[in-house]
Amino acid sequence: MTGVDIVQTARIARLIQNERFFGAFTQGEIDYFKSKGSKPETLAGIFAAKEAAAKALGTGFSGFSPREIEIAHSVRGAPHIILHGGAQQAASGGSVHISIAHDGDYAIAFALWQKE
Q1: Backbone angles phi, psi at 94, to 5 degrees
Q2: What is the pTM assigned to this prediction?
């Protein structure tokens, strides 16, 4: 299954003014965001990736929270997904792959759930 999501960077720029918004992210994601200069497009890409992954699992966020889909990055910056709790159960028997891009006003992510 596949999933895609697009997020307007300006929307994320407004949301990050509210500390409660960060409840959707793991500490690792927040640390990555800060390491990249706290740019809204960075968090927009991570948010889009969480949404795309939930769609690829075929569940949306039913049965788990956005924090249970963690977007991590390799040393070279390539994103990958770490699933926790209910998201890990939803992906049982498969894995999720992700790609993220951002340009100007938008961030987009594409996810693919692949049966093992």
Answers
A1: -160, 180
A2: 0.94
Q: What does the DSSP assignment read for 1-68? A: -EEEEEEEHHHHHHHTTSGGGGGGS-HHHHHHHHHTTS-HHHHHHHHHHHHHHHHHTTSTTTTS-GGG
The two three-digit tokens of residue 3, written as one number: 């999933």
Tokens of 67: 């924090």
Distance CA 9, CA 42 (A): 9
- pLDDT tens profile 60-113: 999 999 999 999 999 999 999 999 999 999 998 899 999 999 998 999 999 999
The owner of tokens 């409660």 is 20
- Write out the two tokens for 47: 């948010």
